[in-house]
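In practice, a research group might receive sequence data for several interacting partners and want a quick structural hypothesis before committing to experiments. The following worked case mirrors that situation: the sequences arrive first, and a predicted assembly follows.
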Amino acid sequence: MDAAALQAFLEASVRLAAPLALAALGETISERAGVINIGLEGSIIGGALGGALGALFTGSPGAGVLAGAAAGTAIAAIFALFAVTLNADQIIVGTAVTLGGLGIAGVVYQSVFGATGTALTLPTLPALPLPGLSALPVIGPALFSQAWTTYLACLLAPALWYFLFRTRWGLDLRAVGEEPGAADAAGIRVRRIRFLAVLGAGLLAGIAGAHLALAHAGTFAEGMSAGRGFIAIAVVVLGRWNPLLVLLASLFFGAASALQFELQAVFANVPYQLLLAFPYLLTLAALAGWIGRSRAPAALAHPWPPRSGE
Amino acid sequence: MARAAVEMRSVSKRFGPIEALADASLRAYPGEVHALLGENGAGKTTLMRVLCGALAPDGGEVLVENRRLPPGGTRAAAAAGIGMVHQHFALVPSLTVAENVALGTREGSGLRLALDRVHARLAELERVTGLPVDAGAPVAGLSVGAKQRVEILKALYRDPRVLVLDEPTTVLGPQEVDWLFGVLRSLVAEGRTVLLIGHKLDEILRVADRVTVLRRGRTVLAQGRETVDAPGLARAMIGRETTRAAGAARAEAGERVARVEAVGIRGDDGRMAARDVTLDIHRGEIVGIGGVEGNGQRELALVLSGRLPPAAGSVHLPATVSLIPQDRSAGGLVPGFDLAENMALAFHDDRAHRRGPLIAWRAMRRTARQIVARFDVRTPGWRATARSLSGGNQQKLLVGRELARSPDLLVAENPMRGLDIAAAAFLRDKLVELKGGGPGEGDAGAGGRPTNAPPGIVLFSTDLDEVLDLGDRVFVLVRGRLIAVPEEERNPAGMGRLMLGSERA
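A structural hypothesis for the assembly, expressed as tokens:
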């Protein structure tokens, strides 16, 4: 691989990793509080559509990101209303929110742009070269000339790590995800923390969706989230519910996806669908190798208050 | 008299059809250890959960230092100075001791968690109370006794005016109980109030200044220590006279019915829960095994009943083994099944209870009815699920079913826990009768064992008096090691010494 190809590979890895990292970091917070948000995919597609509409109507991609964040949060609020406030089954509500989110995004898109949907061109998030660093050979243009949402993901990882493991709120949140009964006995408001954690996850998933539309594709297409919500959930497991490792796991998956494009070029006679499966197979292998040594929050997907018992 | 620290007036609380509290009152003063007594299901824990805000009462009122406690949940109660040490510990296993203590406190400057401050204050509390604890250790790896110390320190950390302890002595050895009572006395000497839920009368009478007795959700007695005695309290608790049975005669051992040899057992957490356990069990004897909870009893009971393969050593078991597990819903009853269905779990292979491949439901219901009648199981109705029974009544149903199977070996883990006094005495008599080859409950028709071949019985209990009273041979189980109690140490203090001695080794 020559320098130009390596640079392209690295750049693609980071670009593909960024939306995953944003969504997975949010999901980490939610799962640490004991809520598995299968509705993440719904928040991502909502964020993509919100981002597209916001950028289109204001002409500003930054405003688009804000609109995407708001849309992702709103969809997460629906999930939280049912799964936390009304204490319904998290898996079922999450599935409904994902399917509903994908459907509603399609309906809104078609009602705004018509059923045929001529390809939409959006104002995109510009690359922000970091002074100095972006001048480095190969890695400069690859790593330090990205959209600001990518830098946001990188800064969020240590910030969320600090939040989880060094602050009172982080301690309370982890207790809620491990042993909500003990947290409740200590006077912690279990549902409120869970609700807020889910909203936070929706906010980041919304930004991830907006990044897809505005930094990645420069357009919106139905179903463009393409399962990233579910991959993000796998990435959380791969990153063992630790924001720093989750960021690394996102980069790993981003690199696997980027490598897959390279492989398509090299093995032109292999059906590309097989190569498309490559990152997913790699993820399965990594999960199988790692999961034995990691442990999910003990109360993950457990309702609060408990449904049966006393 | 001084102003009451806690006053609860005519508190009532219903759970569906069950009236947990009808007219419960309690008045406790600063500087006293106040015992709350009652049979299982009398409403002690419910009353205390009302006090600490976990339950909203249907009627009545709660005053703390003459101020009405707003029905605002646990935070309002904590703000009023109520601290609770739960029977089932409210700890997060994956967090450290210090982190558990810090939970829900506003410890820290701004957002940052000041764990060093928590460590410092814990060290101070340790010094004052003499409760040793390793503040940096994760709670998951602690012994049961250490977890309780953490619970107590966690409550004291918030500097409560009133400290509630729910059955704290069930997980402690005799020496640890003395020590806990010493700590409680020093707390009330500082002007605090200690509310102690219990059911062992002589233990309670050693430490309490005043006693309140609940019976079926009503306060039936509230007196100072000097005016009550154990028989009077027992009468108040159950509403009639009881006689304590004389100690059971020691049995001559019959033929060997089970043997475990050099057995090592791996617990759920992957650590060795028991090692090098060798034990012969004979027909017609009760092997009593005492010890503090969490020392391998559950795992050894599972191996002895064939539910868990050992990691090392050999196990020889007879055809029919009955297990009365401590956790009734995990290995005993199916909470969502009704009474006959729960009987069917044990009897579906039995000739008298099936017709070819079909279950003979009529016979099954008859057996269920017999057990309900003999063991005085209180059920809301015939189609009632096991879940709808109180804990004590579930225990009676399970014990009745297992005795009715005419087992060759009966393994019982704390079978008396959760039973009221009368039912415990009844079960005790049944066990004695069973080992003597008496009829037991064998007329329910399972198996063809002749009545002159009694089962071997292994009785695990944290109540050393129970082990000493019933055991023909007595052992203690400490950190997974089984130690025979020699004749000259056959008393609670001697057993306590063996338990401590082995801990140091």
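Before designing any experiment, note the following. The radius of gyration of chain B is 24 Å. The first helix of chain B runs from residue 44 to 51.
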